Amino acid sequence: MNNNSYEKLMSFKKKFPHSVTWFRLKKHCEILDKHLNPGEYVQFICAGQLDPKPFSFFNTGVLAITNERILVAQNRFLIGYKFSSITPDLYNDMQVDCGLFWGTLCIDTVKEKIYVSDLDKESLPEIETSITMFMTDAKKKYNVKMENE
């Protein structure tokens, strides 16, 4: 299946140009696309620095919301890659911090916290809304499924 995550990311970058992201965005999207399940597709995608430190400009990666889960992908500069999957049952909550120029998103899961920093502060409401709406709907479906079993 030919996925268009890179094109969607370029749309996000055009709409919110002040997010701090460096080269290799296509490589990060390739990692993300490689881990999509059959029938899974990207609904929303953004890029930023995958750490909690503002002004840490050399840890670029992508965060995507699919029809099934949240994915975080990063192609490492020299060897390998880093990939995380957050399913609705592992999601706890989210925190958004907005600074003078950029913002940071913290997704709290059962096992860890995932940070995406140096996001264009104008993009924060759209990212938060996309994640919240997806998780609210997914958790409802998950709870109904659990009750029926």
Explain how this protein is built:
The protein is α+β, with helices and mostly antiparallel strands. The protein has three helices and seven strands, in the order ααβββββββα. The chain has helices at 5-15, 25-34, 124-148; strands spanning 42-49, 60-66, 70-75, 81-86, 91-98, 102-109, 113-120. The strands form two sheets. A four-stranded antiparallel β-sheet has the order 1-2-3-4. The chain has a three-stranded antiparallel β-sheet with strand order 5-6-7, with helices on one face. The radius of gyration is 15 Å and the shape is globular. The protein starts with a helix and ends with a helix. The model has no long low-confidence stretch (mean pLDDT 92).
Task: Offer a concise description of the structure.
By secondary structure, this protein is of the alpha+beta class.
What is the strand and helix layout of this fold?
Elements: H1 5-15, H2 25-34, E1 42-49, E2 60-66, E3 70-75, E4 81-86, E5 91-98, E6 102-109, E7 113-120, H3 124-148
Antiparallel strand pairs: 1-2, 2-3, 3-4, 5-6, 6-7
Question: Number of helix segments?
Answer: 3
Uncertain stretches of 5 or more adjacent residues: none
Mean pLDDT across the residues is 92
Rg over CA atoms: 15 Å
Topology order in helix (H) and strand (E) letters = HHEEEEEEEH
Please describe the biggest sheet, giving its number of strands, its sense, and whether it closes into a barrel.
4 strands, antiparallel
- Rough shape? globular
Strand order of the largest sheet: 1-2-3-4
Q: N-to-C terminal Cα separation, in Å?
A: 32 Å
Strand fraction: 25-35%
Instruction: Give the helix/strand class.
Output: alpha+beta
Strands, total number: 7
Question: Helix proportion of residues, in percent?
Answer: 25-40%
